[in-house]
Amino acid sequence: MQQLIYFFQKYRYFLFFLLLELIALTLIINNHSYHKSKFVSSANSITGGFYNKVSSLTDYFQLSKENKALIEENIRLINKIEQLTQSIDTTFETTIIDTTLYQQKYSYINGRIVNNKYAHVNNFLTINLGSKDSISKEMAVINGKGIIGITEDVSTNYTRVQSILNKESKINARLKNSSYFGTLSWNGKDYNVVQLFDIPRQAVLKEGDTLITGGMSAIFPEGIPIGSVYNIEDGVNSVSKVINIKLFNDMTNLKNIYVVKNFHKTEIRKVEAREDE
Amino acid sequence: MNRVIIFFWLVLILFLQVFVLSNINFLGYLNPYIYIVFVFLYPLNKNRFLFLSLTFLYGLSVDFFSDTGGIHAFSLLFIGYLRLLFIKIFFKKTDIDYLLFSLRDQPFGQVFNYVVTLTLIHHFILISLANFSFSNLGSVLLNTLYSSIFTLILYFLGSYIFRKKQMN
């Protein structure tokens, strides 16, 4: 017993050090698993509040760029409306809207990024929307140019977003000109280039092909632009072929975003869970 | 009064780190981690419980801002624990000298060795943990080297500036 006390006395600093390191390690591992709620996160009210203050200050430096991006998006949307109205006009007599079946599937909530990280291997963003804006876990975050990430950790006023520049991130993506789809993830190297895996062998790909979201997940709506094929690295066999995708978005320069809410998410999840049984 | 000033400095360095220095991203990914001056400047003491707890909390507060789990807490605590060992190696000081010890009064060569060693250890642990895999060890080592140089330049510049002020 005395020896035990002596041991503790002799190594008390080392044991205390070990204890604290263990806590830190637990927090690190916790941070790497998507499904656990996070204690250390910039989505809490103190850090989120500070980031919000700093961001409202630095926003002024980016106003002209943001304006330009918004104008571009406006023009694209106006063009789309024009196309749609034309197609409605021509098929006017054959279109019948069934009000009992008609339901809005997605709604968009606009917000602002208050903290953006892209230089690490696992990157996160913080946005100024939270549970008070009916944000929940696993919602898509996009902007006019393309996809940005998936919401992960929600507090009342802020939300932490897992960026597509995160090693854990996996997003369903397909080619625009065919229906072949694969999984999009990131190797942690260049923040302009992400990788596409699991694309079937028979898919014909060439540099410059456009990639969009596949709509196979309950998170992203179909047809949101992602990027274009940058180059194709040959793997050991054709299945392990790595396709580098250059993002349309400049991930280092983001401000205004939309969070996409899928009204059918729980329904889709329920049906998919039933298939597993 | 002195404690208030120290607290004020700590908060200032923390904010400088998370709002300015962590966003430099020189060449795409290089950032200085100047908040480790906490370990260099905190007075030596025989009782280390308070110091170790403070290094942990200080690192954790950087983690809170940068969404990194506990990697800053882990690496800062690590060099905080190793500090006394290196003071013994480089400056040949023992328990009795702790009270009057200050990096300002030591010869530059020894201070340089001490600061460079602790910085390299800290940055290596930090960047390996941020990477969280063994797959690209080469880039981890390079990143450690470059970020350390970045941090050291800032540290020695800063210490030079504040030393001048004290003499006047």
Could you tell me the CATH topology label of the largest domain in chain A. Answer: Thrombin, subunit H
How do the helices and strands follow one another from N- to C-terminus of chain B? HHHHHH
Tell me the name of the CATH homologous superfamily of the largest domain in chain A: Rod shape-determining protein MreC, domain 1
CATH architecture of the largest domain in chain A: Beta Barrel
- The best one-word shape of chain A is globular
Helix content of chain A: 25-40%
Strand content of chain B: under 5%
| Pair of chains with the largest interface and how many residues each contributes | A-B, 40 and 34 residues
Summarize the helix and strand pattern of chain A as letters.
Answer: HHHHEEEEEEEEEEEEH
Radius of gyration of chain A: 23 Å
Rounded average pLDDT of chain B: 85
Could you give the count of β-strands of chain B? Answer: 0
* Rg over CA atoms of chain B: 16 Å
Overall number of domains of chain A:
2
Mean pLDDT over the residues of chain A: 81
- Unreliable stretches of chain A, pLDDT < 50, 5 or more residues? 90-98
Strand content of chain A: 25-35%
Give the overall shape of chain B. Answer: globular
Largest sheet of chain A: 6 strands, antiparallel, barrel
Structure in words:
The complex is a heterodimer of chains A (277) and B (168). Chain A folds into two domains: 45-93 and 103-166 and 254-276, Rod shape-determining protein MreC, domain 1 (Thrombin, subunit H, Beta Barrel); 171-247, Rod shape-determining protein MreC, domain 2 (Thrombin, subunit H), CATH 2.40.10.350. Chain A is globular. Chain A is built from five helices and twelve strands. By secondary structure, chain A is an alpha+beta fold. In chain A, strand 3 (140-142) and strand 4 (147-154) form a beta hairpin. Chain B has one domain. Chain B is built from six helices and no strands. Chain B is globular. The A-B interface holds A 13-14, 16-17, 20-21, 23-32, 40-42, 44, 46-47, 50-51, 54, 115, 117-122, 124, 126, 160, 167, 188-189, 191, 252 and B 15, 19, 25, 28-29, 31, 48-49, 52-53, 56, 59-60, 63-71, 73-74, 77-78, 81, 129-133, 136, 139.
